[in-house]
Design a protein that fits this description.
- The protein contains two helices and five strands, in the order H-E-E-E-H-E-E.
- The protein has a five-stranded antiparallel sheet, covered by helices on one side.
- The protein is elongated, with a radius of gyration of 26 Å.
- With 142 residues, the protein is of the alpha+beta class.
Length: 142
């Protein structure tokens, strides 16, 4: 029975080392792609730049926002007249193209083109269209 004591001490030692390793392991860095905050708004498209893989970057001059998620401070609330650069997936780039085409001739680049959209910001600071943008309806002539 004298051999059980060293075996018991060995078991306690293994548990103590495993617990210390678990508690002292490095914490993962915050996910920079995690969604942080979002807003829904109408705005005038002032530019669209094609990116690799069918993606695009839309420049939108904000007209008015209709909803904000938690996480905005007064200083970084979207402002009327401010131009925002928003990245889009290939599907949302296609939806943007359709929304803009619905507002007139594709050759008439001088007429303002407006969209209703939702943008979400990642912790990295990048903004992304998170829903297919649409031509706004009933927005006082937009």
């Amino acid at each position: 029975m004298g051999w059980l004591k060293p075996l018991w001490l060995l078991g306690v030692g293994v548990v103590a080392i495993a617990t210390a390793g678990f508690l002292l392991r490095p914490k993962p860095a915050p996910d920079q792609t995690a969604l942080y905050r979002s807003y829904t708004a109408t705005g005038q498209v002032v530019g669209v730049k094609a990116l690799a893989g069918g993606r695009c970057r839309v420049q939108v001059k904000l007209h008015s926002w209709s909803s904000l998620s938690p996480g905005f401070t007064l200083a970084d609330t979207p402002r009327k007249g401010q131009v925002y650069a928003i990245n889009a997936t290939p599907q949302n780039c296609t939806a943007l193209e359709v929304a803009l085409a619905a507002q007139g001739s594709p050759d008439d680049l001088k007429s303002p083109r407006h969209i209703y959209y939702q943008a979400t910001q990642a912790r990295s600071g990048d903004w992304m269209l998170t829903q297919a943008p649409q031509a706004p309806v009933g927005c006082g002539g937009l």
